[in-house]
Amino acid sequence: MLFVLETGSVRTFRTYGDRKLTIAVLQPPGIFGVMGCFGQGKYLSSAEALEDSRVRMISRDSIQSLLECAPHVTHKIVDLMSERCVHFLHKMEILARKGLIPRLATLLLEKAAHGVVAGMTHKDLAGHLDVHRESITATLGELRRAGIITIERKAIRILHRERLQRATQE
User: Fold this and answer.
1) Which of 5, 96, 108, 166 is deepest in the core (most CB within 10 A)?
2) CB under 8 Å to 145, separation ≥6 — which residues?
3) Is the pTM for the entire model greater than 0.70?
């Protein structure tokens, strides 16, 4: 099956023991399950809805028929897979080259809407960065003590965006 996200949001992830490594958070229109629909037909990750969502399922046979009669769809799927690969490689580069403060600063800037990261727990942030929740709590505390952010209930407010951007380069 190929899955098409029509409304809501979905997180794709891999599970390692009791930890979940987030691969992507998808917004509509989005597709997932591409690897399970092509090649060996194996799903390499799992998915979960982050809010009420509507997902359409398209069978592998239907996708094969569509690709045969509408080759432009093939180009769109290849473009999407290439975009995801670039995003994943960029994420791996960040993980490999930076300490936790720059990685967390980068994530906060990516997730912020109008200077606020809302609805993400320390555990969610830890899952995105593949670290323990306690490490996120300690690092957020450092950024708070430096006056760069404030921590509110289910929200992190960025007080000094420029300083947080500089922290991404450390």
Assistant:
1) 108
2) none
3) no
The answer to whether the beta carbons of residues 33 and 20 sit under 8 Å apart is: no
Q: 46 is written with which tokens?
A: 């799992």
Which helix H or strand E contains 126, and what residues bound it? helix 122-129
CA distances from 104 to 22, 62, 98, 136, 155 (A): 14, 41, 10, 8, 15
CA distance 129 to 135: 10
Which among 80, 68, 79 has a CA at the least distance from the CA of 4?
Answer: 80
Placement of tokens 């500089």 in the chain: 166
